[in-house]
Amino acid sequence: MSAPVYDSNNIFARILREEIPCKKVYEDEFALAFHDIAPKAPVHILVIPKGPYVSIIDFSANANAQEIKGFYAAVAAVAAQENLDQAGFRLIANTGANGGQEVPHFHVHMLGGKRIGPMVAD
Ligand code: 5GP
């Protein structure tokens, strides 16, 4: 599958280039994690891969195995670091228009710090 066009000026690309600040939680060679600017839970962290992938579809098709493993290892590292792993958390990857994806750089939301409500809003 050919990669979709990636907008290198999307807000998360600019955060990766440190053109705009973020409240960093975790970083390694594969991923960056930072607090969401508009948190929907007591803990609301975004984890993004460092590569230019539009969505989970693009990431799954076009990232290499090391990048994919590194990304999910980073999610697990954040869960352990932020004490989300024992109490639990919700992982969300909004994808495309129907998924409500606003920023076209693949990311997952980690929501926790309390019991998260219904899986899908009415
Ligand atoms: P999406 O709807 O694309 O899954 O989620 C994008 C998320 O990025 C939203 O929850 C929004 O609050 C967050 N966001 C948008 N702009 C910024 C920003 O400049 N900094 C941070 N930390 N989060 C942002």
Fold and architecture overview:
With 122 residues, this protein is of the alpha+beta class. 28% of the residues lie in helices and 20% in strands. The protein has helices at 11-16, 56-62, 65-81, 96-99, and strands at 24-27, 31-35, 43-49, 90-92, 108-112. A 5-stranded antiparallel sheet has the order 1-2-3-5-4, with helices on one face. Strand 2 (31-35) and strand 3 form a beta hairpin. The termini are far apart.
Residue fraction in strands: 15-25%
CATH architecture assignment: 2-Layer Sandwich
Q: What's the CATH H-level superfamily name?
A: HIT-like
Q: Compute the number of helices.
A: 4
- Give the structural class: alpha+beta
Tell me the total number of β-strands: 5
CATH top level assignment: Alpha Beta
Unreliable stretches (pLDDT < 50, length at least 5) are: none
Helix content: 25-40%
Which topology does CATH recognise? HIT family, subunit A
Number of domains: 1
Mean pLDDT, as a whole number? 96
Assign an overall shape: globular
- The secondary-structure element order is HEEEHHEHE
Largest sheet: 5 strands, antiparallel
